């Protein structure tokens, strides 16, 4: 789950597709299976990089949604992820709440 945001940020669309294909072939794992079991956690970690790398992260999330993830290039357009994020909003907010509390010094909690 930690490698996905790094792949999205460091490469362009073509490099992301090549990287995902390389991971599948070298590790004998299916990206689809990883996404089925870890999608929410991957999205949470992607959101940590959203401010500085908005387009790259959103295009990566688009790539994860496809029936065959990362099989072709994706271009983000405003509004195309609205329904996807709306159904996950509470989980995203809970993740950020936990992340912020975890980073606070103990004396500020309670």
Automatic annotation (TrEMBL):
GO terms for molecular function: kinase activity. Keywords: Kinase, Transferase. The keyword Kinase applies. This is Serine/threonine-protein kinase atr (Trinotate prediction). It comes from Myxobolus squamalis.
């Amino acid at each position: 789950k930690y490698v996905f945001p790094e792949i999205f940020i460091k490469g362009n669309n073509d490099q992301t597709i090549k990287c995902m294909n390389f991971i599948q072939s070298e590790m004998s794992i299916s990206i689809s299976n990883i996404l089925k079991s870890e999608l929410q956690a991957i999205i949470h970690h992607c959101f940590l990089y959203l401010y500085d790398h908005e387009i790259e992260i959103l295009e990566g999330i688009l790539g994860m949604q496809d029936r065959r993830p990362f099989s072709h290039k994706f271009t983000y357009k405003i509004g195309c992820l609205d329904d996807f994020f709306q159904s996950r909003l509470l989980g995203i907010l809970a993740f950020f709440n936990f992340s912020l509390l975890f980073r606070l010094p103990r004396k500020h909690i309670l």
